[in-house]
């Protein structure tokens, strides 16, 4: 195994519980649940290889090459050798992410290598269907599949990731900067407001109202809605639904869980039919089928 890939990931992650999911040739795939006593900044460290991070639950702050952004269950980011990376957990521990480390020859063999390496550190978000594929991969690795299948699934996932994830997001806020002009103070204030709203929604039980979110971030619902859309490209409702569906997928992946009606209530849906409609819109399958897919040991990608 090449240097930097396959060694102990605890030396390169936030303090926490970690579990190796697969070690196919030239790759290391693992998950981390952060357990921290100090909510402040950890690091910085300098990356020794290429790492792809995929958020699964909770929230944290990451400082990548001097730029700070909020990570949550919708976030993906890539680091390259030499990148400076630090993290903090202002909301406490418990955030979960998957990490895929890639050896240089794995990237060199791909026809889309330049798309991976076109800038020094990038981040963005994945859609619901790609997130489902990621979670299915984790679930099957946890239940036990051989390294041949792990490798094939990971290569397939990487290809779809590049074809469906908008790159060029290594400079967060580029869209709002173009929209309002280069006014750094305004841009920074709007980013902070949007991130604070995201933090409130991540920490909520999903039954919180828009007015309550606005009160907690100190502005009117109208102003918050307008700024959030401008900064993130999503409405608050769309972002909240993405978070809710991610949380529902975590419940469904755990195996025998509560009835779907209880899952709907716990996540703030009007009823089970509403839950089914929103989940199907985002990932292409209703919750009942997803529960069966997660439980099926030999199921292929959804």
Automatic annotation (TrEMBL):
HTH araC/xylS-type domain: residues covered: 191-293
InterPro entries: AraC_XylS_family_regulators, Homeodomain-like_sf, HTH_AraC, HTH_AraC-typ_CS
Gene3D superfamilies for the chain: Homeodomain-like
MF annotations from Gene Ontology: DNA-binding transcription factor activity; sequence-specific DNA binding
Entry keyword set: DNA-binding, Transcription, Transcription regulation
Highest rank taxon of the organism: Bacteria
Protein name per UniProt: AraC-type DNA-binding protein
